[in-house]
């Protein structure tokens, strides 16, 4: 019976080719536009470190004075930690792994004469960062906690930068001049490019290129290397050394916690630390301001999706809805016009179920064809998104789950569009129609 | 034209007619808001900068290592740049409009004030106002002996009190002292105060991170920068000489000091274009969505009307046989469409208002001006009439003889 209905549906669709093409195109456009925007949203809210993200947390303290008025249009100083707080958390050593870090952009002066000096982005961090984030090494290794303590001038290069500076021979053991200082290369990492860059400061690019160097944070502070994140100061700062000031926040801090018990204990530790600092008179706000965000929770808190993208998603969904209503009306008119034919079938013994199946197959065919064209249109849409200037643009690719999602959406949309017309057509009273024939 | 028969016909196609009304309403609501969004975006890209945009160039350099004698380096660079053929003015400045990189400070009107009044941006650089081509509307520009060296001030904070004067924009003056002249008034920053000696018509801040309302909250200080403390050279030239001056200037700077690299060299027009790129892209997307929506709706109307015409062939034939003219039949379908469109539009207006309220709360958009409602209505009436014309003409062409045929 199924094959017969398929044949009937094909004949019916062929009878009015223009209309069929119109319905397929309409649903295709709606699906294509929606899937383009859903895919963009999907890559922007992606898990940057699948498998590892569940164990990563970022602690936040509130060292601001009571009378500090935070401007709603500026960055929140409590998004980052101050140097003394970061060092205290680091020394407490309560998590499996912990690291403080900040982004920096430095001028590289290659030894090779044929390469002009250029700027690279990288990260100043403490020793645990490699093991904690699972950054894999191509050659060599990271530095140790002892290097942190002694402020050693060592650097770990990203693969791309290593190749650019030293060619295929690799730069381990060589010296590279960053800014105005020499650093010894001790390791080369595979390019590590989590998207979004969850570990970077809010004001830095969230969807950017990989970190091309890592060097000890203590050395960076020692040499007063420039950072490229937000630095928020309050109160009187001791201008002599603002980086280590207790009144300026600029550091990102991450910890790895393996079990719920450990998370609970760390949360308690943050409360205790804040209470202790308050008792000492350094903190003024209640200790309950201290927070521990999970990685995905932190991304949600930062709200990386630009309002334009959300607006575009709403637009696309609105458009899809109009398309669905459109197809619903067309299918309904089409089916009702065949009331006579349906009534004859009913009079000859077809049950309502049979009619429902027959017309359902016809609308499903429109849906499948619409879904396929929607897939093509979405690819076209994503291609155009990739040519936008935004930093997230090059990520706009469809993965398998999105591919399946597109198809599910297409089928759901066409079912929704076909359901009402099919149901209505089944309820045509045969006797009345037959008389009219 | 009798409307009642149309209603009784539509009653027999309740659901289909309702769906069409719904589609028109949704389209109307989305189109109204989308057109409004487009006008907002395009208006934003027109934002006045207050500088001679078509004549300005920026060359940004980066030093390799700290330059030993930043002050003389800067003066030498500027002298060389002024010699480049076509250059009418050159300045070394701390920031440039539309580059998204700015230094800002909180200001107060009264030193005893607890919270700052607002946050304004700080331009500095010798001869900045004249080089930028900002238009003075009151007071005067800085005199040569008013300028202090920024580097000296950095090493000796005491000198901050010596700055003394500032030029602000008209918009900032109006914001700080509504309805009064800003000239001669004091602005306080931290422990220092400066007196307003001049007002420029407008000078946009380099980044709009504080929102578009704060775009013109700008101050210019009489500070001379050095090659150690600033990296942006601004040149002014005739619009048709820009490219050639740009490449020549980069060459001159590179030659004067090989220990630096030229990071960027752009015309201000290009910098502005890049700054508003997102707004233009968004406007483009919205135009696309509007076009797609209207086409889908129009085609939906065509499809539905065609069905109805085909379905009513016999009734049309009977009407024709009973004396109705072709014009009567044509009018019938046109009126039917007009009725459906009107119901849809009324519903659409309510919906448009609702969507606007949603956007106002979520995306801080202004209220939809009333004139967008009639515009949306006219657009949909027109599209409805155009779409129904083809099927209606086909209906009018049905010969009366159809009435006498069975099936």
From TrEMBL, chain A:
All copies of domain ABC3 transporter permease C-terminal, residue ranges: 316-430
Subcellular localization: Cell membrane
Record's keyword terms, sorted: Cell membrane, Membrane, Transmembrane, Transmembrane helix
Domain (MacB-like periplasmic core) ranges: 20-266
Pfam families: FtsX, MacB_PCD
Annotated membrane topology: Multi-pass membrane protein
GO cellular component, one term: plasma membrane
InterPro entries, sorted: ABC3_permease_C (IPR003838), MacB_PCD (IPR025857), Macrolide_Exporter_MacB (IPR050250)
Sequence intervals crossing the membrane: 21-44, 313-336, 356-382, 402-420
GO molecular function annotation: transmembrane transporter activity
Record-given protein name: ABC transporter permease
TrEMBL record, chain B:
GO molecular function: transmembrane transporter activity
Topology in the lipid bilayer: Multi-pass membrane protein
InterPro entries xrefs: ABC3_permease_C, MacB_PCD, Macrolide_Exporter_MacB
Domain MacB-like periplasmic core, chain residue ranges per copy: 47-243
Annotated Pfam families: FtsX, MacB_PCD
Gene Ontology cellular component list: plasma membrane
Residues annotated as domain ABC3 transporter permease C-terminal: 289-397
Keyword Iron-sulfur: no
Coiled coil: none
Keywords recorded for this protein, A-Z: Cell membrane, Membrane, Transmembrane, Transmembrane helix
UniProt-annotated location(s): Cell membrane
TM stretches of this protein: 15-38, 281-310, 338-359, 371-393
Family statement drawn from the similarity comment of this UniProt entry: Belongs to the ABC-4 integral membrane protein family.
Protein name: ABC transporter permease
Species per Swiss-Prot/TrEMBL record: Rhodanobacter spathiphylli B39
């Amino acid at each position: 019976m199924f094959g017969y209905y398929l044949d009937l549906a094909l004949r019916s669709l062929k009878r009015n080719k223009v209309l069929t093409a119109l319905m397929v195109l309409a649903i295709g456009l709606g699906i294509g536009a929606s899937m383009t925007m859903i895919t963009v949203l999907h890559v922007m809210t992606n898990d940057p470190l699948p498998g590892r993200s569940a164990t990563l947390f970022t602690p936040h303290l509130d060292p601001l004075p009571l009378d500090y008025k935070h401007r709603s249009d500026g960055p929140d100083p409590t998004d980052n930690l101050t140097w003394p707080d970061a060092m205290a958390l680091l020394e407490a050593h309560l998590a499996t792994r912990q690291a403080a870090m900040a982004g920096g952009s430095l001028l590289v002066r290659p030894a090779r004469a044929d390469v002009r000096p250029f700027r690279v982005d990288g990260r100043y961090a403490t020793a645990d960062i490699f093991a904690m984030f699972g950054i894999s090494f191509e050659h060599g290794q990271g530095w140790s906690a002892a290097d942190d303590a002694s402020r050693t001038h060592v650097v770990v290069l990203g693969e791309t930068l290593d190749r650019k500076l030293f060619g295929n021979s690799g730069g381990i053991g060589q010296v590279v001049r960053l800014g105005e200082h020499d650093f010894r290369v001790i390791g080369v990492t595979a390019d590590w490019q989590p998207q979004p860059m969850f570990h970077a400061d809010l004001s830095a690019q969230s969807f950017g290129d990989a970190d091309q160097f890592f060097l000890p944070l203590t050395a960076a502070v020692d040499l007063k290397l420039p950072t490229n994140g937000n630095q928020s100061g309050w109160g009187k700062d001791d201008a002599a050394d603002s980086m280590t000031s207790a009144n300026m926040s600029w550091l990102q801090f991450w910890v790895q916690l393996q079990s719920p018990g450990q998370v609970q204990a760390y949360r308690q530790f943050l409360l205790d630390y804040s209470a202790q600092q308050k008792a000492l008179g350094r903190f003024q706000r209640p200790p309950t301001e201290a927070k521990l965000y999970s990685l995905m929770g932190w991304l949600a808190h930062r709200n990386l999706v630009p309002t334009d993208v959300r607006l575009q998603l709403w637009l696309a969904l609105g458009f899809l809805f109009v398309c669905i209503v459109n197809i619903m009306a067309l299918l309904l008119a089409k089916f009702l016009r065949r009331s006579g034919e349906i009534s004859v079938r009913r009079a000859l013994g077809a049950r309502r179920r049979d009619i429902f199946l027959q017309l359902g197959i016809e609308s499903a065919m429109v849906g499948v064809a619409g879904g396929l064209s929607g897939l093509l249109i979405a690819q076209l849409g994503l291609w155009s998104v990739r040519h936008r200037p935004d930093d997230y643009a090059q990520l706009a690719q469809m993965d398998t789950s999105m591919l399946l999602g597109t198809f599910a959406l297409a089928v759901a949309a066409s079912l929704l569009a076909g359901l009402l017309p099919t149901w209505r057509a089944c309820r045509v009273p045969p006797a009345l129609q037959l008389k009219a024939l | 034209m009798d409307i009642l028969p149309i209603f009784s016909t539509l009653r027999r196609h309740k659901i289909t007619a309702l769906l069409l009304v719904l589609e028109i309403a949704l389209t109307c609501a989305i189109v109204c808001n989308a057109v409004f969004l487009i006008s907002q975006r395009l208006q934003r890209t027109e934002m006045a900068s207050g500088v001679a945009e078509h004549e300005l160039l920026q060359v940004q350099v980066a030093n390799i290592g700290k330059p030993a004698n930043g002050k003389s380096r800067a003066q030498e660079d500027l002298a060389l740049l002024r010699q480049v053929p076509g250059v009418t003015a050159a300045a070394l400045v701390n920031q440039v409009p539309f580059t998204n990189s700015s230094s800002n400070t909180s200001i107060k009107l009264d030193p005893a004030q607890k919270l700052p009044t607002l946050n304004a941006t700080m331009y500095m650089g010798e001869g900045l106002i004249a080089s930028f081509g900002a238009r003075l509307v009151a007071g005067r520009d800085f005199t040569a002996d008013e300028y202090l060296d920024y580097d000296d001030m950095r090493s000796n904070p005491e000198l901050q009190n010596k700055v003394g004067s500032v030029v602000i924009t008209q918009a900032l003056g109006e914001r700080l002292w509504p309805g009064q002249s800003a000239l001669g008034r004091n602005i306080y920053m931290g422990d220092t105060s400066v007196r307003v000696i001049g007002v420029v018509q407008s000078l946009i801040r380099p980044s709009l991170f504080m929102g578009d309302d704060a775009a013109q909250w700008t101050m210019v200080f009489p500070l001379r920068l050095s090659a150690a403390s600033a990296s942006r050279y601004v040149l002014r030239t005739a619009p048709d000489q820009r490219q050639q001056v740009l490449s020549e200037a980069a060459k001159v700077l590179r030659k004067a000091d090989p220990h630096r690299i030229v990071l960027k060299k752009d015309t201000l027009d290009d910098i502005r274009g890049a700054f508003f790129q997102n707004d233009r892209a968004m406007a483009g997307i919205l135009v696309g969505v509007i076009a797609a929506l209207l086409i889908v709706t129009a085609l939906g109307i065509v499809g539905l009307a065609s069905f109805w015409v085909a379905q009513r062939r016999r009734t049309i034939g009977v009407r024709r046989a009973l004396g109705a003219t072709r014009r009567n039949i044509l009018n019938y379908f046109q009126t039917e469409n007009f009725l459906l469109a009107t119901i849809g539009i009324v519903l659409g207006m309510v919906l448009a208002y609702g969507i606007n309220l949603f956007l106002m709360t979520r995306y801080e958009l202004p209220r939809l001006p009333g004139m967008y409602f009639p515009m949306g209505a006219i657009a949909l009436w027109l599209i409805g009439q155009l779409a129904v014309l083809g099927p209606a003409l086909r209906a009018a062409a049905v010969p009366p003889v159809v009435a006498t045929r069975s099936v």
